[in-house]
Amino acid sequence: MTNSPPPSVSTSTSTSTSTSTTTTTSTFRDVSLDLSNKHAKRALEVLLQMEKRRTKVRHARVFSSNPTGYESPQGIKIMTELFELLSRLPNLKTLTVSFPFPQTLPLQALCFLSGAPRLKSLQLDNVSLQTEDGDQEEDKQEQQLEQQLELWNKTGQLQELTLQHCRGTKALQKLLSKGLPSSIRRLTIANTPIGHAAAPAPASTSSSSTSASTTSACSTESCACSTTGTLQAIIQNNPQLQGLRLWDVPNLQDNHVQVLADQILLMGDKTLIQELEVTSSILGPPSGEAVANLLIQHRRSVKIEHLKLHLDWEDCGSTVALLLLTNKQIKHLDIRLYGDDDNVRADATAIAHALQNTTSSSLRRLRVCMELEPEQVAGDEDIMQAFEQMLATNDALKYLVLDDSLEDFALSAEMEAKLKLNRSGAPRLWKRNTPPSHAHFVQALINQRNDVNTLYHILSNQPTLCSYALMAPAKQQQQQDADEEAMLSKSSSLNCSTGIDFSQFAPGRKTLSSLSPKRTTYKARKFLKKSMKKVFASSA
Fold first, then answer.
1. CATH number of 14's domain
2. 166-175, 285-294, 520-529, range with greatest mean pLDDT
3. % of the chain beyond a pLDDT of 90
4. Cβ-contact 287, 278 below 8 angstroms
5. 211 touches 205 (CB < 8 A)
6. For the chain, what is the domain count?
7. Structural domain of residue 455, as residue ranges?
8. What is the pLDDT of residues 306-315, one digit of tens each?
9. What are the start and end residues of every segment in region (Disordered) (predicted)?
């Protein structure tokens, strides 16, 4: 047997900074299987016989360049056998199955992946899942499938599952309701139906504690084949799930999102969901209100930190503003503002005002998607001024994106400068009740070490860092210890670890206009460069 790779298996290696395709010196970390090649199965079998090379495979991709695919019974059988072979790769971590057309894949084939001990991520794109049909042996096959799903649930190590443009409602419901491995952490459902169009009567909103019990009273028979039942099963049967993404799910209605919110509330501390994303042009205010009320009224029991709502939700500004004012757990918010120009402008302004003077806020990333033209936002003084005023007092927000889903709107130079300063962490140090240490400011400098203007601004308001850098290392430690003892002995509250009251710098603190490159002269840059080398050297 030769050492060259088998036919129709494309392998790639990354020996340096670039990725190249090779046939003799490949590390076999990435394997691509083209099902349009009739030798694909044989190629994978040959690879499995190479013990050293099969242990190196980390990522596998299954695709087909043939427009007809494997729609014949023989082709479906080969697909099942290929998945059984893939499960024998001992170190396989990610598997992507992507087709340019709907490709039939038996649900039983996925169950073979329970034998892959290190598989963490699985993505199915344009796959039509199906359960094997049989007239005489239908009950036997159904029982066998249940056993396979139960085995995958107990032994599978999958942590992330993505279903994109998939079909086969019956098989999908079985997979999502009973077949998800107990190790699953993140589930993404995009353009994939998880139930029929018909849905039970809308459940009450999550604003009351009794709504969850009302929703859970729905019988299994009435919900087994509905989107409602599938969503309930996802939350109830997977308490370890941390992220749920629902992107443009067909037949997903407002009452389904209400049921989802109620089920999360019903689980309480038993669920670990920290990330929730719902995007749909069909869903409206009821869906947004259901999720917002869940996070406002039950903010202590619900642990969601990442929230994305892209809905046709008009006049959502006041509700989102209340959410930001009351819920201190959300770190990432991605919201879409929908409606006419006046409504969008009012909603954006309300959100900006809610984030003013929120030094204790946990929000670090904010994206506001507005149904406005870029020229309108750039020339709209109300919107831009509201966010500028917010950033002037908000020291927690690190990333801000204003866009129209296609193009980002340009932020002013002052806004960009303040965001960079917030990412360094220096503004929060200046406003701390307890004096920050020398190491805290050094870390702030390190966070923005590639931005000279931000470094210059921090050093301008913390000049003692330069004096520390000019000392010998032994004297630095002695001086720092002496300063700390002096601060502890003083009754007044100081704002600096060197014994200097930083409040005296507040009236004359250099504004963000000093961050302009034109204000940073050549001599200042040269002195700053020398000082920074000494600061970083002393902190090492």
1. 3.80.10
2. 285-294
3. 37
4. yes
5. yes
6. 2
7. 435-539
8. 999 999 999 9
9. 1-25
